[in-house]
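Probable periplasmic serine endoprotease DegP-like
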Amino acid sequence: MQPRGMPHIRRSAEARVITKPASAGWHIRAIALTVLVFALVLAQAVAAFAKPESLAPLAEKISPSVVNITTSTVVEGRTGPRGIVPEGSPFEDFFREFQDRNRDGEGPRPRRSSALGSGFVISEDGFVVTNNHVIDGADEITIEFFSGEELKATVIGTDPNTDIALLKVEAETPLPFVKFGDSNLARVGDWVIAMGNPLGQGFSVSAGIVSARNRALSGTYDDYIQTDAAINRGNSGGPLFNMDGDVIGVNTAILSPNGGSIGIGFSMASNVVTRVVDQLKEYGETRRGWLGVRIQDVTQDVADAMGLEKAAGALITDVPDGPAKEAGLLTGDVIMSFDGVEVEDTRGLVRQVGNSPVGATVRVTVMREGKSQTIKVVLGRREDADGAADTGGEAPEQDKEPETKDFLGLTLAPLTGTIREELGVETDTVGLAVTAVDEASEAFEKGLRTGDIITEAGQQKVATIADLEARVQAAKDAGRKSLLLLVRRAGDPRFVALSLGD
């Protein structure tokens, strides 16, 4: 017989065995709940830090460096008041007499026209950045500071390509200024502040986010930050700030159907502006690198026609006299890297070349006839390259009735003296003239038109129909499904790939 009390002891042991896990589980859940609450509090604190309750402290800090710009220009006056009174008005005779008297006298009198814009101070000794279009053609430039003080400004230099101008004022005391930030660090969604003088209403602040990066409008060196911070006429030349109070852009343009802000504004990225400003400060002008080639993007059909692995790089369509020609670059080369940086497209290459020092020796890697080559090029200066003439080959005289050929929707004929005269083509141009285009063809879809000149096929020069037929056969023998043509229109070259069919 078991001793009395044992069942009680057994039950207690069982109770302990049962209750211990339950107790441990409760503690684990309590700890997990505490961690969750702490994480939520931390997240709220981080969010509060990322988005301040008020932008006033930041605005107060940086606003003294933002200025209003007023320009004055003398323009030709009009001959008397026009359209002021309707016909039949009792004042009609008076204004007609006034106009007649003005016409019989000294004629139109010049008048002054004013314009408004914005800018910002970048040094305590009075350098001011704004847009070129704000001060272009101005006879007088007045800078109004946040304090209300006004000073006359002089133009140090301008760059129409990026729409940037550098001004200088002479102040008796050091001026408050702001510094540029790294625009490459700006992310889509980051908070930004725009400051300026919208619609001539005086100092104004607006806030928004970075909506997009690397926008291109119309310029060669464009690198715009898109923002929904309110930008209107008069904001041009004003700064776009990040939350550290650094300038990451210069407000330049808006996209709007009615002239007012609809939340699509563009600021030239600070990493572009700083290079321009440094050159304007040192030289009074810009000095950009110049490679000396005409280029186009490598599309997939062009890549297929050239046997390239991927559609990347910049395809050279022409090599006029200049650094590239002296170094040995050729039409049809595909630039794959420039100065050690891989080339994705023409826009990136143009910007990289322009940012390179004049006179620098750079390595340019190209694909030529399926093989990679690296060529050293000494860069020239872009601003000295204007007016560079294109070069061509020798053109045979062909005054007889030319042979024609129908080719992939095109009717082609060799260039003769008569055709050259009709098309305004220089006598040294060699190629085949497009005399007709089938509007249902791939050639028409890709933009070929009557009057175009085909100077190369399969990256080889063509002067006769026989040359073209040989290039077509060579492409087919190589297993190519398309043929690359170099087409010129009014002297401007571009490559077009046409499918050869079965």
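thats it. The CA atoms of residues 81 and 99 lie 7 Å apart. The chain has eleven helices and 27 strands. bye
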